[in-house]
Amino acid sequence: MKTAFKKVSDIKVGVVGYGGAFNMGRMHLQDMAKAGMTPCAVAEPDAARLAIAAQEFPGIQTYANVDEMLKKSDVNLVVLITPHNTHAPLALKCLKAGRHVVCEKPFAITTEECDAMIAAAKKAGVMVSTFHNRHWDGSIMRALEVVRSGMLGEIVRIEAHMGGWSKPGDWWRGSKSISGGILYDWGVHLLEYALQVVDSDVVEVTGFAKAGYWSAQSKWGQDTVEDEAQAVIRFKSGVWVTLTISHIDPNPKRGMMEITGTKGSFLWEYDHHEITVKQGEVTTVTKAKNPPEQWAKYYENIAAHLSKGERLVISPEWARRTIHILDLAGQSARVGRTIKAKYA
């Protein structure tokens, strides 16, 4: 990678995409500033949103598109806060221009796109990463403590589930071609949790999908995300993970994530968890709130990586793992058979 920055403040950051969901452009700039980096530019095609960015960050450079920003600014770290299907083409443009890149999750939609981004970053000698801030959620940090303590015994399986009875939204996340499909939003977070727990290589993936019920009621028609989809991941260690996301579940399952071992289980939602342990004839159930999340660690690590050469926690190879699994799940659902993994 290119020579490290002498000071964290020398890392000049720009975001591509300021408005839209969750005020994410503002959040990213604020979090990067807290980590010591310098907010420098915003690229946003919506003039009204661009005006808000200029108001919220006085003196920041504003551009109508990423090409203009790359040409006219000295930004050296670009954060892409754009629809999923734009991550790869925009990242490739920035990487080839010699800029470090952070993509909002998911990293991309296909394994091929991930491979291209990794290759481009290596060729240009720059960093590429994905904003997996939930890597530091309190729930997964507590789960890892419990797993590593041996309290649950040998881990057997992990079940991840989110769902309800609801029509997909009429914004771009409801489009399969733009978003990647129903598994690509929250599914990426849940898979990333599971990969932290299971210290083993992925062997194969089986996918299932049902589409069509909501299509007639969505503005996207046949391009609407699936009504429900599932991925079953088998690991070399023998552990398996199931991921299910549904828009047709009238009775959502208890708990977003559950780790089952030979001695007990760890069930969690974002704000609380439940540990059940079996010792002989005695079953002990412990309920507690999750520790606070530590999302600031993401950009602190990016800053330390670029300025001090510290290990990049969310490496592009790590980010590719979730996308490879989802890519294989989609392929498997289409052809009706299990597919072997290329990347473990």
What does this molecule look like?
With 344 residues, this protein is an alpha/beta fold. The protein folds into two domains: 8-131, NAD(P)-binding Rossmann-like Domain (Rossmann fold); 137-295 and 324-340, Dihydrodipicolinate Reductase, domain 2, CATH 3.30.360.10. Helices cover 33% and strands 26% of the residues. It is built from ten helices and 15 strands. The strands form two sheets. Strands 14-13-12-11-7-10-9-8-15 form a nine-stranded mixed beta sheet. A hairpin with a 2-residue loop joins β11 and β12. α5 packs antiparallel against α10. The longest helix has 20 residues, at 316-335. The protein is globular and about 70 Å long.
Number of strands: 15
The CATH H-level homologous superfamily of the largest domain? Dihydrodipicolinate Reductase, domain 2
What's the average pLDDT?
A: 95
Overall structural class, as computed from helix and strand content, comes to alpha/beta
What series of H and E elements makes up the topology? EHEHEHEHEHEHEHHEEEEEEEHHE
Largest sheet: 9 strands, mixed
| Shape label | globular
Low-confidence stretches are: none
Strand content: 25-35%
| CATH fold group of the largest domain | Dihydrodipicolinate Reductase, domain 2
Work out the count of structural domains: 2
Alpha plus pi helix count: 10
Order of the strands making up the biggest sheet:
14-13-12-11-7-10-9-8-15
Question: What are the key terms here?
Answer:
alpha/beta; Rossmann fold; Dihydrodipicolinate Reductase, domain 2; 9-stranded mixed β-sheet
